[in-house]
Design goal:
This protein has 413 residues and is an alpha/beta fold. It has helices at residues 22-29, 65-70, 72-79, 96-103, 109-112, 143-146, 160-165, 183-188, 201-214, 228-236, 241-259, 264-267, 295-299, 321-331, 341-346, 397-400, and strands spanning 54-60, 84-89, 118-121, 126-129, 134-135, 171-176, 194-198, 220-226, 270-275, 281-282, 288-290, 306-307, 311-314, 336-340, 366-370, 375-377, 390-391, 401-408. The protein has a domain at 19-105 and 159-281 and 397-408: Alkaline Phosphatase, subunit A.
Length: 413
Amino acid sequence: MNLNLPDEFVRPSYHGRSIANIPATIAHLLDAPFSGLPRLEGELWQPIAEGITRVVVILLDAMGWNLYHQERSCFQEMLGETAVSAQITSVFPATTVAALSTLWTGFAPAQHGLLGFRLFLPDYAAVGQMITFTPAFGNYTGILVKSGLDPETFLPVPGIAQQLQTTSVPTYSFKEQHLVKTPLSDMHGRGVKQEHGAVSFAHMLVQLRQLLEAQAGQKLYAFAYWPTIDTLSHYHNWQSAAVAAECRALIHQIRQELFVPLSAAARAGTALFITADHGQIACPLEQQVRLADHPELEQMLLMQPAGDTRAVYLYAKHGRQADILTYVRENLFHAFAAVPTAVALSSGLFGPQPHAPTASERTGDVVLLARKGTALLNKLDDSRTRQFLGWHGSLEADEMIVPWLGYRLDRPS
């Protein structure tokens, strides 16, 4: 059965032009073997490849191509000309848990199994919130780990740091301090030599610079993650003055704390890439759909939806899958495309085969793909998230297309 999607949707390009292809590219640049999805197409790394022994990736959460294009002149003024500049896609769902898990493994969401913000976990009889690993119905941070979930074995695929270890290439991670030693960090950081926590973006860049100086001439991979564009975009949407100001401030700090002060010895053989896990799309409050306003649909469901607000996993009561598909087609077609989950999986939307054994049970019976600026809110969403003006997760260009920017730090721009 074919997957027919609205024309405006952008499908992930898992075979050479997506964030899923970044890990294999890094391994190739560092001359390390890699098992996972293939590397990026040659034009996206070959101009930067000669003599590279150190790779740094700075990931700015939710800095989609839309925002990059708006602030492109600031990038050029602050950071100079890129060696590589291209559009690539996120994964599906275009959300942080799924995308970061892909960037830390080189496998697609259906392969690594972290397929969204909220996932049904039959072993724990709960829908889990997969950033804090708490049941979605309340804030009991880390309780799933205390109940037996092992971050070291939860992902059924190896991490990139583990794979780089086989050729003695160390991996270093940088992130906000409160994210260090969390279950999700532990999953992603299998094999990482050192995890650095930061209280500000400038603090993170200083630590990154100090590492590059201390390890001058040594092979390494460093991955730095910063979330503030995403946070502000949720509250104000990506088109707001606050988001634009934050983006410019981050670019300025990259210049002042990394590009300018780095020594020639630390620059040698070093490539820097800037990218994002996904973008964001503006979702005005009046376009958001509340499940409670559709009691007939709610009665067809076995439980509250899982997944995300724009990539929704519906679990049907026995025999009601077709009824759900009909209801969405007749009443919510303007807001969502509804797809049988088996079709979405078999079509490769979540990534190519082989899939994790848990992929189908974690994605329900029907996947709702949000169209334009809509989102589905249900009883699990709190009063804070109900006021968000920006979301991501579905297949619109604003959330799916991200920049891939490459710089040679040992060559003048």
